[in-house]
Amino acid sequence: MNAATPRAPAVRPEAASLGTRERIVRTTSRLMQRQGYEATGIKQISQQANVALSSVYHFFPSGKQELATEAVRHADQEFADIMREALATEADPAEAMIAVTQVLAEYLHNSDWLDGCPITATALETAGRILDIQRAAAEAFEHWRALVAEKLRHTDIAEDDILDLAHTVINTLEGAELAAQVSKSAEPLEIAGRHLARLINSYR
Amino acid sequence: MNAATPRAPAVRPEAASLGTRERIVRTTSRLMQRQGYEATGIKQISQQANVALSSVYHFFPSGKQELATEAVRHADQEFADIMREALATEADPAEAMIAVTQVLAEYLHNSDWLDGCPITATALETAGRILDIQRAAAEAFEHWRALVAEKLRHTDIAEDDILDLAHTVINTLEGAELAAQVSKSAEPLEIAGRHLARLINSYR
DNA sequence: GTCTATACCCCGATAGAC
DNA sequence: GTCTATCGGGGTATAGAC
């Protein structure tokens, strides 16, 4: 017999003020952030979102994969907003990296180390198996990279170097969030922020 | 109706020469690497491993979580062997980073971009929900960091800096593998190798 | 230790009234 | 668009013979 798996801090039910479709997508996005794709059930979604099961299928007739793809796109935008805002708090791009890691660490800590990157778990579970979701995840990473590259263009670093740096900034943030989550510690993110700033400064 | 999800390159059935228990653990590890924890079923494991379902429960009486925890520990050792070997191919620690990324890129490419880090998907799916697995994953990351730190001690970088660098090396590799898998391209890993070498060299 | 058979549950998805 | 009810299948886990 399995031990009961404790449910950590409740995902807050989405306010009924939002449209039904919006509530479904947001709830799915949150659940997939914490549990991944496979562990997130349509029934669980409909309950958390305060929506009838049939409504989920009304808005997403072809089912779970279609809904999950949309949820990844939603998470893409949401995480981009967080990054954009954090990047804007510091004029200097190297300093801005530290600001980003601080914001991500806050989200993690405030959620008891549950709310990391909203799409990583889903992306890995579905890589090579559910192509629509994989494509949406790839587009999200591209999107976030573009935000970093844009910030780096406020320096005189060569364009080729900027594009490479944008890759490593996002990838290092991803890895550091993973490590922070698993170890329940902000330290990997703090170190990542300092190292990314140092790496960027080494190009100018 | 769901579209049929294509099954990519078959996981090769484990040779019957291994002991039953070993075959079960290895097969579980491989499947979790590609699909994560939730999508990997005990029946699927028993079939791929050429083992009776009851044998799985004979060796792992408390079920899937116990088996998955053991599989993560196995993957820990296996990935450590790969890293150790790759690190040993170059005397210079900075150059060794590039060697590691090349090896990881080969594994990914040869598996049609399926075989990335063997524990990341599982770690994220179970973070905060299945504590035994989370702990095993945390130990694996520590283990791999220790290998990198050991390599970096062949320089005269200060010990504190070495420990920080080991964090970022592993985390950047993790993020780059994720990106490589999702985008089906070795580029994120190649860039990561160059940047990690540069970062290390900036400390000496 | 491995065999066959099965209990029990929850999954995704659907039907049809309203 | 939302309701209730349900189908078919696959999940984990178990029983008991051998």
Average predicted local confidence, pLDDT of chain A: 93
Oligomeric organization of the protein chains: homodimer
* SSE ordering of chain A: HHHHHHHHH
Derived from helix and strand composition plus strand pairing, the structural class of chain A reads mainly alpha
Strand content of chain A: under 5%
CATH topology of the domain at 71-201 in chain A, what is it called? Tetracycline Repressor, domain 2
Helix residue percentage of chain A = 55-70%
- What separation lies between the terminal Cα atoms of chain A? 59 Å
Q: CATH homologous superfamily of the domain at 71-201 in chain A - what is it?
A: Tetracycline Repressor, domain 2
The CATH architecture term of the domain at 71-201 in chain A is Orthogonal Bundle
How many whole angstroms does the radius of gyration of chain A measure? 18 Å
Most strands sheet of chain A: none
- Catalogue the unreliable spans of chain A: 1-8
Structure overview:
Two copies of one chain form a homodimer. Chain A is mainly α and 204 residues long. Chain A has a domain at 71-201: Tetracycline Repressor, domain 2 (Orthogonal Bundle), CATH 1.10.357.10. Helices cover 70% and strands 0% of the residues of chain A. Chain A is built from nine helices and no strands. The first copy, chain A, has helices spanning 20-35, 42-48, 53-59, 64-88, 93-110, 120-126, 131-152, 159-183, 187-201. In chain A, helix 7 (131-152) crosses helix 8. The longest helix of chain A has 25 residues, at 64-88. The N and C termini of chain A lie far apart (59 Å). The relative contact order of chain A is 0.12. Chain A binds a DNA duplex (18 and 18 nucleotides) through residues 1-2, 20, 41-43, 51-55, 57-59, 63-64.
